[in-house]
Amino acid sequence: MTERQQIPTLLLTSTGIVPEVRKEFLSLLNKKPSDIHVLSITTAAYGETNNPWWLKKDVELLNECGITKEHIEEYDLKDKTKKEVEKALEGIDIVLVNGGNTFYLLHWASQSGFDDVLKPFLNNGGLYVGISAGTILVNQTIEVAGWKNLDKNKIGLRDMTSLHFVNFLTFVHFTEKYRKIVNDESKKTKLPIVALTDTQALIVKGKNVKLVGTGEKEFWNGFKEVQ
To answer: How far is CA 207 from the centre of its chain?
Structure first.
């Protein structure tokens, strides 16, 4: 790493900065919350519906952390160029990638060049916060998005290879009713798997991985926390 590079840091969640992970989120900030600027990537949400009600909830959770509405900019990757995305990231401290349709999100993350500009953003000290689809996006593959048969590949995506910032798969919104699905699917892949409930998050700093929040830790295929 050069002197200017920093260890890439990601906070991966199922449903945003809920109270159970707020303390850990705040500990990752290098400024006062009121000075933080957020670029909220809404692409996945609009790939799912024209009325993504959860976006308002995600903003409210950030507001409760002390980040002001005026410092949160919504941004859609659809039809954007790499230069436009780079411009949008100027002066930004946190890239928050919202939930919705993961297949649609990966398509436009690739088409817009977002996948290319994210790495230097993180190397320069930016923080990545994933919510649901935004969490799955940084896995090696987005295959988990289709396990519950809730995330439809409406855009006809063929290559499921994603941004590959982590070497495991993350199953979001985990509850007991999905245990059999994960058990069955875990036998079809060699990749480690971690399940996140809506009150948990993963902090990833380089090779270090820590699960925070409340509830049981659910791991498959040898997934381990590394600290």
So the answer is: 17
Residue 160: partners with Cβ closer than 8 Å, 6 or more residues away: 106, 141, 142, 143
134 closest CA partner among 19, 10, 27: 10
Q: Which structure tokens are listed for 87?
A: 């411009």
pLDDT band, very low/low/confident/very high, at 50 (cuts 50, 70, 90):
confident
**If you search the block for the tokens 């850990």, which residue do you land on?**
24
pLDDT digits (tens, 9 = 90+) for 137-165: 999 999 999 997 778 999 999 999 999 99
Q: What are the residues whose beta carbons fall under 8 Å from the beta carbon of 180, sequence distance 6 or more?
A: none
List beta partners, residue 218: 195
Distance of CA 144 to the CA centre of its chain: 14
| 194 within 8 A of 171, measured Cβ to Cβ | yes
DSSP string, 102-128: HHHHHHHHHHHTHHHHHHHHHHTT-EE
